[in-house]
Amino acid sequence: APGGAAESSPRRLLAALQMGGVPCSDPLPALYGFAHPPCLFAHLAKLQRELGPEGFPLLPLRFCNR
């Protein structure tokens, strides 16, 4: 549907920029992570595993199945 929420998704725009090879000051996969919270949290959890919980404290994430 034209003008729908799916068309205005920032993830679609970032994917198009990445596929088009558009230069960017920040890596486009990093920007995509901010548009997709579970992806961002996965990267943060990886940093915590590398640096340790004291070096990189992170609040635990709880999932709720509705």
Mean pLDDT equals 76
Query: What is the gyration radius calculated from CA atoms?
Result: 16 Å
**Low-confidence region ranges:** none
Instruction: Report the order of strands and helices.
Output: HHH
Strand tally is 0
Largest sheet: none
Mass-distribution shape = flat
> Kindly, what is the distance between the CA atoms of the first and last residues, rounded to a whole number of angstroms?
28 Å
Helix content: 40-55%
Strand proportion: under 5%
Describe the structure.
This protein has 66 residues and is mostly helical. The chain has a domain of 42 residues. The chain contains three helices and no strands. Helix 1 runs antiparallel to helix 2 and helix 2 packs across helix 3. The longest helix has 15 residues. The chain is flat and about 40 Å long. 2% of the residues are buried. The model has no long low-confidence stretch (mean pLDDT 76).
What is the strand and helix layout of this fold?
Elements: H1 10-19, H2 28-35, H3 37-51
Helix pairs in contact: 1-2, 2-3
Short descriptors:
single chain; flat; SYN protein
Quick synopsis:
This protein has 66 residues and is mainly alpha-helical.
